[in-house]
């Protein structure tokens, strides 16, 4: 877009005014010319009275008024609409059914709605309410969980099982789950070769009963009940248990980019994680200076899966930090050997960092196991147990 002509980006304006970019050699408040046609400089109050045409020169944001001219220039919208801050207690079906509200938009059952679509209407909304409902909660969570008790890296089958066990056993602990993908669940939405059924070998059926997932007993191993026989049943169930826990926050689409360390008698202690939006992490090669955020925590549990573009993240970082010599390298497939090894080997690898699930195969060189998921659930149970063994000591070190 040439500098000399007013830009024609249409911004939001009331019917009596039009907001345009124009140039002004004298205007003290003028903005520099934007570099690209798609970049909008931030909204800035113009130096004109709002009636004069925009002078030429440097670029600035001015208001061109249409009739009738108001008496003052338009300023950026003032936050005039403040909806009350609601309590953030979760509402269950029974609490809703028991509530006694008589307003038009009182809590209805689906049966109340059915067949009455001619009169149907959503409750009124102002768009900013939607924005604030999201941002207020998210930024409060960022604030609350900047100091966590436990961070779980990766929300695959192992990470979610770990979160479930700790979150349930210790409601006093604040647990942040950092998941790089938009969709948590890792590789547990399908079984092998993209088939639907999920196989869990006994005794991992105990975990299915724990979270109330039906399964079909086939003797030495169990498959989820044929009526719902889909890995997604396990993953959606454990996920819903975990995100419902009041002491757990899942930050998805967020990536762990590094580990926070502290000096320790054993060399170094892991004392938190360095995070960023995953989309930002993916662009460090072509955009510079996109610094991350951090979460401090005395115990980190890494369950980022086997080596791959994103997997085995913390173990790979331990190698580059020279805390372990090299990646173990996942071995060939042997279900019998692999599942036992992953569960038994789930442990604190360096002070403050527990590794579980398939990521552990990159520490110990365990065999791959293929599409059998019992080890992931029970590795989560063991990771929780290990975390609860060390949490008090690591919290004390963290305070020192
Ligand atoms: C393509 C594919 C290949 C498979 N290959 C094998 C195999 O070779 N051997 C085997 O035994 N099983 C394999 N499986 C089966 C099964 O998926 C895994 O065994 C199982 O999912 C591992 O569970 P997990 O919880 O350890 O890790 P995953 O289910 O892999 O979950 C790890 C999670 O961590 C997240 N994550 C990764 N890095 C970061 C980071 N830096 N920050 C935040 N989050 C992060 C990922 O997005 C993911 O959601 C494979 C599955 C798939 C889909």
Automatic annotation (TrEMBL):
Its main location: plastid. It is found in: Plastid, Chloroplast. The keyword NAD applies. During the catalytic reaction, a sulfide is transferred from Cys-289 to a reaction intermediate, generating a dehydroalanine residue. One of its GO terms (molecular function) is iron ion binding. InterPro entries: FAD/NAD-bd_sf, Sti35, Thi4_fam. The modification 2,3-didehydroalanine (Cys) is found at residue 289. Keywords: Chloroplast, Iron, Metal-binding, NAD, Plastid, Thiamine biosynthesis, Transferase. One of its GO terms (cellular component) is cytosol. Its EC number is 2.4.2.60. Its cofactor is Fe cation. It is an enzyme of class 2 (transferase). One of its GO terms (biological process) is thiazole biosynthetic process. Substrate binds at residues 158, 179-180, 187, 256, 291, 306, 358, 368-370. Residues 30-56 are annotated as: Disordered. It catalyses: [ADP-thiazole synthase]-L-cysteine + glycine + NAD(+) = [ADP-thiazole synthase]-dehydroalanine + ADP-5-ethyl-4-methylthiazole-2-carboxylate + nicotinamide + 3 H2O + 2 H(+). The keyword Phosphoprotein does not apply. Coiled coil: none annotated. It holds the Pfam family Thi4. Binds 1 Fe cation per subunit. Homooctamer. Belongs to the THI4 family. Involved in biosynthesis of the thiamine precursor thiazole. Catalyzes the conversion of NAD and glycine to adenosine diphosphate 5-(2-hydroxyethyl)-4-methylthiazole-2-carboxylic acid (ADT), an adenylated thiazole intermediate. The reaction includes an iron-dependent sulfide transfer from a conserved cysteine residue of the protein to a thiazole intermediate. The enzyme can only undergo a single turnover, which suggests it is a suicide enzyme. May have additional roles in adaptation to various stress conditions and in DNA damage tolerance. This is Thiamine thiazole synthase, chloroplastic. The lineage of its organism: Eukaryota, Viridiplantae, Streptophyta, Embryophyta, Tracheophyta. The gene is THI1.
């Amino acid at each position: 877009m040439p500098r000399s002509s007013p830009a024609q980006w249409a911004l939001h304006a009331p019917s009596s005014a039009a907001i345009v970019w124009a140039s002004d050699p004298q205007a003290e408040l003028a903005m520099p010319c934007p570099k690209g046609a798609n970049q909008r400089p931030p909204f800035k109050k113009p130096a004109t009275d709002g009636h004069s045409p925009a002078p030429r020169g440097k670029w600035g944001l001015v208001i061109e008024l249409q009739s009738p001219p108001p008496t003052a220039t338009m300023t950026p919208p003032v936050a005039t609409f403040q909806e009350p801050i609601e309590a953030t207690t979760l509402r269950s079906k029974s609490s809703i059914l028991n509530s006694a509200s008589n307003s038009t938009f009182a809590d209805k059952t689906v049966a109340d709605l059915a067949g009455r679509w001619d009169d149907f209407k959503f409750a009124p909304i102002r768009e900013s309410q939607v924005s604030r409902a999201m941002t207020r909660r998210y930024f409060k969570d960022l604030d609350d969980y900047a100091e966590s008790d436990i961070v779980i890296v990766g929300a695959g089958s192992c990470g979610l099982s770990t979160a479930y066990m700790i979150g349930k056993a210790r409601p006093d602990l604040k647990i942040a789950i950092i998941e790089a993908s938009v969709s948590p669940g890792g590789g547990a939405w399908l079984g092998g070769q993209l088939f639907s059924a999920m196989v869990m070998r006994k005794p991992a059926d105990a975990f299915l009963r724990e979270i109330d997932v039906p399964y079909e007993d086939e003797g030495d191993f169990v498959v989820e009940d044929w009526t719902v026989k889909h890995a997604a049943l396990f993953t959606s169930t454990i996920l819903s248990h975990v995100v419902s826990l009041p002491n757990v926050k899942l930050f998805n689409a967020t990536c762990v980019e590094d580990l926070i360390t502290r000096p320790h008698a054993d060399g170094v202690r892991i004392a938190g994680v360095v995070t960023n939006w995953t989309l930002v992490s993916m662009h460090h090669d072509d955009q510079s200076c996109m610094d991350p955020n951090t979460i401090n925590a005395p115990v980190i549990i890494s369950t980022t899966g086997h080596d791959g573009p994103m997997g085995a993240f913390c173990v790979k970082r331990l190698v580059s930090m020279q805390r372990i010599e090299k990646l173990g390298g996942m071995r060939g497939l042997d279900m019998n050997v692999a599942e036992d090894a992953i569960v038994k080997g789930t442990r604190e690898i360096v002070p403050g960092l527990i590794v579980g699930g398939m990521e552990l195969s990159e520490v110990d060189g365990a065999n791959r196991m293929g599409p059998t998921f019992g080890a992931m659930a029970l590795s989560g149970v063991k990771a929780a147990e290990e975390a609860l063994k060390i949490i008090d000591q690591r919290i004390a070190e963290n305070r020192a």
